Every structure is written in C-alpha cells, then in structure tokens.
Amino acid sequence: MPAGDGYDYAVPEGMELSPGDIVTVPLGPRQVTGVVWTDASDPNVPDAKLKAIIERYDVPPLAPQLLAFVDWAARYYMVRRGALLRMVLRGEQGLSDVRGKTGFRKAPLPDDVRLTAKRMAVLEAAGEAPLTAKDLAERAGVTEAVVRGLANAGALERTVFDPDPPFDAPQYGLPGRALSPEQSAGAGELRELIAEGAGTALIDGVTGSGKTEVYLEAVAEALRADPTAQVLVMLPEIALTLPFLARLEDRFGVPPAHWHSDVSSAQRRRVWKRVLDGSCRLVVGARSALFLPWQNLKLIIVDEEHDPAYKQQDGILYHARDMAVAMGARQRFPVVLASATPSLETVLNCEDGRYRRVELPSRFGPAVLPEIRVLDMRGEGSESGRWLAPKAVGAINETLAKKQQVLLYLNRRGYAPVTLCRRCGERMTAPDSDTWLVEHKYTNRLVCHQTGFSMPKPDKCPHCDAEGTLAPCGPGVERVAEEAQERWPDARVEIFSSDTVDRPGSAKDLLKRMTAGEIDILVATQAAAKGHNFPALTLVVAVDADLGLSGGDLRAAERTYQVLSQVSGRAGRAADKGRVLLQSYQPQHPVAAALSSGLRDDFLNAELLSREEIGMPPFGRLAGIILSAQEEPKLMEDARALAQAVPHADGIEVWGPAPAPFYRLRGVYRQRFLVRGTKRSNLQAFISDWLGAVKPKNAVRRVVDIDPYNF
Ligand code: ADP
C-alpha cells in the first residue's frame, strides 16, 4: 500500500477480524481508530515487526460496498482513502459508548442544595431520560464538573443507560396527501424506478409544484419494498429547516433522523450508530450524510440538485450530488434528483437519455407562477443612497396597502461592499489578504467575508490619515433595509442574512414571524431564498439582479438564473398571484429574458450550446490544481516548474498558471492551473503523471480539485 494509505498490523490471539471491522490501533505514540481493509498481509514486512491491534469495537463492520465506494471515490478525487474514511468515521467518538454509560437524570431536589445560575441551568436541562454528563453539560452550557457536583449533592440521579436509543421505524404505510393527477403520474414513474432497482431520475418541477410530495412516495415505496432498506433524503444545509422535518414527520408518523452541521454531538453519535447497525432507516441530511456508515442504502433523494452547496469547498473537494449518482450506479440503487432549475449537467444527462425526466409543469392547487418583469435601471438616475427604482417603490406601496408582504432580495451581507476614502481613494482591504472589507453597520465593524477577519471601523483613513473620509460604496442588505425603513416608517422591516440569524433559533424565530405576518418587508440574502413558504408574500424585488453575472465564472449565468428563479418562487405561493421585479442594468441579458418570458428551456439550450462550443462541462471535463505557499518566490518557482513539465496527451489542455481569485488570503499566496479534457479523457491519470514528475518545492501545497466550481 502507498505510504499513509494504510498500515499492516498483527492480529492478537483470539481476536476475530474481518474487512470493515472498526478497531483501535497504535500509530506512533497515539492510539487511533481505523478500519480493517483486508486480511492479506504484506509478505515484505516480517510479522515480528508489526504492532498489534489493540481492540475491536463491538459494532457491525462497515459494509463491503461502502469500502468499495471509498476506494473508488478516493481514486476519483485523488485523495487518500484514509481521508475519505475519516469522513465515514466522523461519528466515531460514540464507539466507546457501545456498552452503556453513566447517565444523569432529574431527582427530587434536596433542601440543602446551594443553587447557582449554572446549577439552575443544569436542573432545567435535565429530564426523566438520562443524559451523559457531557451531553447534559453541553445542553446547559456549563462544564461537566457542574453536573457532577449536582449529582454529588443529590440533586441529580445517576443511572446506567444506553445513550443512543433506536429511532422509531418510519411508517411507510400511512396514506400520503391526495396527489394531483400530475403528481400521481410522477410518483408512479418513481415507483417504477424503485421496482427496476437502479437508475437516476430528475423531478423537473416548477417551484411550488409539490416535488417533495412526489419523492416522498418514492421514499415510502423503497422502505416498503425491502424491510432492511435505508433511505437518504439530501438537502442543501440551508434548506434543512424545521418545517421540512415536520413535513417528513407528518408523512411517516415519526421524527426523522437528521444529520447536518448544527446537530449536537449526541445526536450525531446516535444517528451514526443506528445507521451502522441498520436500524435507522430514514435520514434527512446535508451533503456529509452521504458518508454515513450505510449498511443497505437503497435510495437517495437529492433535493435542489443544482445547488452549489453540494460542492464541498474545503477539505475533500467532493460534489455530493455527483457522488450520490455514482454511488447509486455502483451499488445498484436508484437516485432521484429534484429541482425547479436543474443544473446543465443534469439537463444534458436527461437529454442524452441517461436520466429519466419526471415533469411537474404547474404549481399545486390554485397557486400560479408569479409574473416576472425586468426593470431597466439604465437612465433611472439613481439618487445617492437610494437603491429602489420608482416603479419598485410604487409596487411596494401597492403591496403594503393590501397588507401583503414584500421580499427585497440582495445577495450581499452587511451595509456596503466597499469602503473607500473619499480623499485619497484608498479601498479598505484586509491586512494580509487581497479581499475588500465590508462595512457592517450594526456592529460598526469592517469584515472580510472570505476569512472572517474583522476590525472596528476606523475614524481615520489608514492611508492618508484624513478624518471622516471613509465612505461606504454600494448597497448591502443593511443599507437597503435602512432605505426601506426611511421610505416606509410604519412598516416592520427585518433583515435575514447569515449575520442576523447566526444564533440557533434566530432564523426559526424570524421565519415564524414572517409566516405569521408580523413582518412587512423582509430584506434578505440567499439564506431566505430556499424552501420557505410565506403565504402573504406577493412581491419580490431583486435589488441588483445583475450580481453574479460577471466575474468570468463558467457557471455565472446559470447560477444567477437559478438563484433568481428560486427567489421569484417565494412570491405568490398561496391563492394571490405574485409579482417579481428584477432591477437590472442588463435587461437584454438572456438570463433576464428567460426569467421574464418563462422560457427556461430556451435559456438552458442556449447555455448548453455555448458550453459545447468551448468544450466546457457538461461537455468536457475540468480539474483545477491550486498551489499555495506563504512565500511568493517558492510558489512561483513551483508553478514554473510544473508549467514546463506539462505532459502531452490527446484531448487534454492545461491553462495557467494564473493567480487564483483572492490571490493572497490570510498571508497565503495562491496560483492555479486549469486542466480541460474531453468527456472521455482520464484527467486523473494525466494529473497524477504530471504532478508526480515534479517534486513539490518545500512548503508549497498542491491541491487537486476535480470538477471544480468557481472557475
Ligand atoms: P416544491 O418543492 O415543488 O417547490 P412543495 O413540495 O414544497 O413544492 O409544495 C408546495 C406547496 O404545495 C406546499 O405548501 C405543499 O404542502 C403543497 N402541496 C403540494 N402537493 C400537495 C398535495 N398533494 N396535497 C396538499 N398540499 C400539497
């Protein structure tokens, strides 16, 4: 095995092991968790030299098809198997708990207990069901010592328990909602797919057409058809909301297991263990749920399949939709994608007959699609500090007069994207990066949105020392909200962005108030664009509909189209017809034209054609090679050496090196190459030959990004 990709160990007398078993082994001075890959030993390593396995966990082994998939995915993404396995073992901290744990639960309060605020928090968090000291402390926001102290004082009862109760089995036999004829036909097609036991389908349905209802039928069918089948419903993290979980609970009679970055470590451990032992049959999760230790995965739903959030942008650079489809194809189970604005990759796969397309062309019930108009901003003569065009202001007046709600969409956090000195022209940038600092007025700080660096807004220009000359340029959501509040002083205006909903529960609270009609104007970034239904929302104004169209990114037009349709889809979800106004300086752009005409497929076809002409995905293949280093000369040296060593291969081209976007970030410089190949070319083999031939310069990091985004 290549170094770092696996090690040989001796098996102690009496320990029975098979591939997939999870074990503890010594690694240098540490003990680590590992997975038995094969029982074949390397004949070149004498047994006497081997260290022995310490312990085998008393849990089922990882399934052989999962190990095979890890093998394949590691080769595809050109990463070590160990790195992928680490994702699979993410719930591993629970492994030591398989035997039962000491738990703490409520007890009658003795009279002589001294009560502090921290102790009160623990008593409030404790219930009838026992919790470990760690979990209870986590819930109460205190240290474990506080919990133990209370138990010693007799205010909590100690008891032994299994900290990870099984999940209730989903009741797939419950009747779902009555489906429309369109929905029934779609559900029928998906049931066929389940019966065939393999293949990929796309539910291509406009926003509000009831795609969820249709794929839940497929979920029910998969659970029914095989009593041990497991099903994963995958959503972009941000769309995994409580209303969505409630909908699943409605359909299957039990709360579904869910998996995303916000769930507690106790919940993670529980889901992980129960997926591994096969008893957890339905998981709703974000992209990383794909790497749970599945025993018998039989169906994956990928909702909002076009969403760029499926592409992981750090660590292992995988695309969860692509991996779901690959997993289904290799393990022979069906995969269902759903979207109102499918990605070009998926559209092409449908057109070529590789995917089955299930269409839902109309909204469910009386709701109709909103009317979308483009407001030509050229010649509107903008007043300074004003971002809403007169026609938009008129439409907002009418909407508020009818006691209906308005969404002002701008995908820019903060107050102003650029801070400029009006005297010397200096633009505020982060000290060790090439990124602009964004003013946030509520916190009165300048923030770098790439690295999270922030500093108080200075009184003086750091360049020319002039006082009071730093001026905000352009709008962010805070600034648009300020304008809305000035124009409509009686309206209840709120901001929805990752800054205002960063505490757990705050997003929920804001959405609840919006649904209850307690907000008149919601100024929102993309964070609010997905999955929410606000019945009284009838007007959406995209403040800057051109954002995202420029920038040289291959997918800029496609993404702008997707986001604006998503946002537009928030309008008029109930009986009242919705209206959408797109403020644009490029009203003739195909994206604007497609949105206002509703001719989505014309846009997709034009976009496909242009990608085909330049041999770009989905017609060709791409990979990025990113070089980074703290020392610029070393970086350039490595880049030059690589540039001189590009091998020749038919159908493969290498572009670069060129500075990566944000060339300097947190003091690290970055250059990149782009490798383009035809559909049939083996980019991985090419790249591994190329990079293998040039030893990297000391302290230069090379990262391969297969199927990159943001290029
Ligand atoms: P999509 O995911 O296609 O945007 P949803 O599945 O969220 O659409 O459905 C849109 C709305 O219509 C939701 O409020 C949903 O509850 C409702 N809906 C869809 N199908 C049905 C049905 N068959 N019966 C009752 N309500 C439905």
Automatic annotation (TrEMBL):
<feature type="binding site">
    <location>
        <position position="461"/>
    </location>
    <ligand>
        <name>Zn(2+) 1</name>
    </ligand>
</feature>
<dbReference type="GO" id="GO:0006302">
    <property type="term" value="P:double-strand break repair"/>
</dbReference>
<keyword id="KW-0235">DNA replication</keyword>
<comment type="similarity">
    <text>Belongs to the helicase family. PriA subfamily.</text>
</comment>
<comment type="function">
    <text>Initiates the restart of stalled replication forks, which reloads the replicative helicase on sites other than the origin of replication. Recognizes and binds to abandoned replication forks and remodels them to uncover a helicase loading site. Promotes assembly of the primosome at these replication forks.</text>
</comment>
<keyword id="KW-0238">DNA-binding</keyword>
<dbReference type="Pfam" id="PF00270">
    <property type="entry name" value="DEAD"/>
</dbReference>
<dbReference type="GO" id="GO:0008270">
    <property type="term" value="F:zinc ion binding"/>
</dbReference>
<dbReference type="InterPro" id="IPR041236">
    <property type="entry name" value="PriA_C"/>
</dbReference>
<keyword id="KW-0347">Helicase</keyword>
<dbReference type="GO" id="GO:0006269">
    <property type="term" value="P:DNA replication, synthesis of primer"/>
</dbReference>
<dbReference type="GO" id="GO:0005524">
    <property type="term" value="F:ATP binding"/>
</dbReference>
<comment type="subunit">
    <text>Component of the replication restart primosome.</text>
</comment>
<protein>
    <recommendedName>
        <fullName>Replication restart protein PriA</fullName>
        <ecNumber>5.6.2.4</ecNumber>
    </recommendedName>
</protein>
<dbReference type="InterPro" id="IPR042115">
    <property type="entry name" value="PriA_3primeBD_sf"/>
</dbReference>
<dbReference type="InterPro" id="IPR014001">
    <property type="entry name" value="Helicase_ATP-bd"/>
</dbReference>
<keyword id="KW-0862">Zinc</keyword>
<dbReference type="InterPro" id="IPR011545">
    <property type="entry name" value="DEAD/DEAH_box_helicase_dom"/>
</dbReference>
<feature type="domain" description="Helicase ATP-binding">
    <location>
        <begin position="192"/>
        <end position="360"/>
    </location>
</feature>
<dbReference type="InterPro" id="IPR005259">
    <property type="entry name" value="PriA"/>
</dbReference>
<dbReference type="GO" id="GO:0043138">
    <property type="term" value="F:3'-5' DNA helicase activity"/>
</dbReference>
<dbReference type="Pfam" id="PF17764">
    <property type="entry name" value="PriA_3primeBD"/>
</dbReference>
<dbReference type="InterPro" id="IPR041222">
    <property type="entry name" value="PriA_3primeBD"/>
</dbReference>
<dbReference type="GO" id="GO:0003677">
    <property type="term" value="F:DNA binding"/>
</dbReference>
<feature type="binding site">
    <location>
        <position position="421"/>
    </location>
    <ligand>
        <name>Zn(2+) 1</name>
    </ligand>
</feature>
<dbReference type="GO" id="GO:1990077">
    <property type="term" value="C:primosome complex"/>
</dbReference>
<keyword id="KW-0067">ATP-binding</keyword>
<keyword id="KW-0413">Isomerase</keyword>
<keyword id="KW-0639">Primosome</keyword>
<feature type="binding site">
    <location>
        <position position="448"/>
    </location>
    <ligand>
        <name>Zn(2+) 2</name>
    </ligand>
</feature>
<dbReference type="GO" id="GO:0006270">
    <property type="term" value="P:DNA replication initiation"/>
</dbReference>
<dbReference type="InterPro" id="IPR027417">
    <property type="entry name" value="P-loop_NTPase"/>
</dbReference>
<feature type="binding site">
    <location>
        <position position="464"/>
    </location>
    <ligand>
        <name>Zn(2+) 1</name>
    </ligand>
</feature>
<dbReference type="GO" id="GO:0006310">
    <property type="term" value="P:DNA recombination"/>
</dbReference>
<dbReference type="Pfam" id="PF18074">
    <property type="entry name" value="PriA_C"/>
</dbReference>
<keyword id="KW-0547">Nucleotide-binding</keyword>
<feature type="binding site">
    <location>
        <position position="424"/>
    </location>
    <ligand>
        <name>Zn(2+) 1</name>
    </ligand>
</feature>
<dbReference type="InterPro" id="IPR001650">
    <property type="entry name" value="Helicase_C-like"/>
</dbReference>
<dbReference type="GO" id="GO:0016787">
    <property type="term" value="F:hydrolase activity"/>
</dbReference>
<keyword id="KW-0378">Hydrolase</keyword>
<dbReference type="Pfam" id="PF00271">
    <property type="entry name" value="Helicase_C"/>
</dbReference>
<keyword id="KW-0479">Metal-binding</keyword>
